[in-house]
Amino acid sequence: MQRRFIDYLVITFKGIAMGAADAVPGVSGGTIAFISGIYEELITTISNIKPSLITIWRQEGFKAFWTAINGSFLTALLTGIIISFVSFMRVAKYLLEHHPVLIWSFFFGLIVASIYYVAKQITRWRFATYLSIIAGAIVAYYITTLPSMAGNNNNFFLFFAGAIAICAMILPGVSGSFILVVLGAYKALSDAIHDFDFKRLAIFILGAIIGLLSFSRILKWLFKNYHNLTMALLTGFILGSLNKVWPWKRVLSWRTDSEGLQVPFKEESVWPTAFDGEPQIVFAILLMFAGFFAILLLEQLGSKHQN
Question: Is the overall model pTM greater than 0.90, yes or no?
C-alpha cells in the first residue's frame, strides 16, 4: 500500500485518538481503531511479526524487513498512541475525579455511535449472528460489574497485567484500562508513568508485547474464518460496555486503597434523577451528541483513506 506523508500523519492522529480512549477505564482503543478504518490492518500487521523477519533482514536487507513488518504504519500509529496515552492519562485522571458525568457522557455518545458502525460490517444475519451479539453483550456487561481488586506492586503481576490488558485494548468494546482497574494494576501503572519508573514500565511493556503477539494471531484467524460471527461478537462487546460508561453512578461500597484513601469498590448505573449529586443533564446530553458526531467524523476519515 503506497502512502504519502499526509496519510501517515492521519494514522498518527488516529493513534492519538486510540491512546486517549485507552487512557480512560471503560473505553477501548480497539473501538477507535475499528471505526477509523485501520483495525484489520493493525491486527494483520501485529500477527505478521515473527522470528523469521530476522532472516529477511539478514538476507534481503533492512528495507525488505521494514516493508515486511509494515514499519511506517506501526511507527506512525505507535507514536500517536504513546504520546496520547502518556499525556492524556493525567488529564483523564483529573476529569474522572472532578467532572465524571461530563467525560462519561462524551464517551457514552461515542460508544453508541460505534455500535452501529461495527454492526454494519456484518454482511449476513443469521441466528448464530444474533446469538454472538447477545453472548458478547453479556460477557462485556459482566466485566463492567466486576469490583476492582486491591493494588498489587509485584513485578511479575505487572507483567501479567500488561499481557491481559493489551488483549482487551485491541478488542473493540473491552477497555484495557478498565481491565487494569479490575486487576488492581491501574494505579501501579499510572504511578510508574508519573514517576518515570522505566524499570516497571519496561516490565509492563514486555508483558504487553507478548500478549499482543499471541492474541493478534487468534484475532487474525477469527477474521479470516468467522468474519461475521467475530463482528457480531465485537458488536456485543461494545453494546455490553455501555454500562461502564453510563454517566450517572451510585456507589454501593467503598474500599481503602494503598494510600489510605476511600475509593469506590462497587457501583451501579442509575437514572439522572437518582444520582447523588448534580446530574448536569443539559451538558451531559450535549457531550453525548459531541461524542456521537466525533465517531461520524472519524468514520468518514477512515472511509476516505480506505478508498
Answer: no
